[in-house]
Amino acid sequence: MSSKFIVIANPENRRVSFLQQALEHFNLPPAKVITYADLIAGKEKLDRFNSPDYILRFDSPEKNFGTEKAVLEMGADVAGSHRRISKKKLVNLEFDKGLIRYPRQWYLGWQYLLQQWEKQIQCRVMNSPVDIITMFDKPASHKLFIENNIPVARSLGKINSYDELKEAMSVQKCDRVFVKLANGSSASGVMAYQLHPRGESAITTVERVRENGETLLYNSRRIRHYTKSAEIADIINILCAESVQVEEWLPKARINNRPFDLRVVVIGGEAQHLVMRIGKSPMTNLHLGSDRDNFDTFICLVDESNWLKMKQTCEVAAAVFPNSLYCGIDLLVYPDLKRHSIIEINAFGDLIPGTTYQGMDTYTSEVKVVMAN
Fold first, then answer.
1. Which CATH superfamily hosts domain 138-152+252-372?
2. pTM for this one?
3. Is residue 1 pLDDT above 70, yes or no?
4. Is 149 exposed, middle or buried (0-12, 13-18, 19+ CB in 10 A)?
């Protein structure tokens, strides 16, 4: 029986070419590409791939404005307190680079679509839509990790406003927190917020822009530092309206006096690829200008026994999602280089070009595991 790979993606995305290269490595035919545009529009159906020799892969729907609008349309009629845009107005929505556009509505549309696609699937799937839904939901993932005794930062619970945040921080005796969009990715809408005797400050990827009496929030690769209470409150209130996950801001280990954490990719139950992300701010995402280093540098900092415990934690976290072949895990290492904590899990966290494990990149490792099962 010959395996036939199907990938659902925005075809221009470099992730598709990495998968095709991995298949070529094993002399397998290229994957059939189904575009998100066609699948969402109903021009393609997944139930036609109804034999076990088909292997279905959902890849990130990122960086395609047409796909973003189509997902937003699917979430337009879902009720909630978040900002919404109607289907009628969506038609005329124009691209504005970096603008944080209706993230909660987008997630609700994405959730609905994945639920519908789950019903259609009759073949093997690399990552199940149900797992992807939960990995995109930071509060839900955090709750699962707590239930499975996996180390995570303390959550401050449901926070709906700036005033609620300050009250919760006071009651829970926590003067430093991370505020994250509940359904964000790539550090979108992330803020490291702290209260101190002189006032308060926020370090964030968010650029606050006032336009025609309205506040617009943009994702910025240049980290912003806000100290004015009115500006901070404005940003936090807008983020809270879209649903947020607020967690204690844990201290990170440092190298050359800069904070670092890890992206670990777990494939087939094994923590394989690892990259150190060495930040210039509390946010260490590589696209924000962080430097990267490899496993050899990391293992020189922590001894083998500590790494094995961290590795096990990553593998246990991935096992919470038993119907997914792979995931990316962001792992925090404390300054003592021994203790650790899961920051979050990423359904599409396997894109770390240039990082290999046993001579293979992440996509090649994934295909290898699929072919072995």
1. ATP-grasp fold, B domain (3.30.470.20)
2. 0.96
3. no
4. exposed
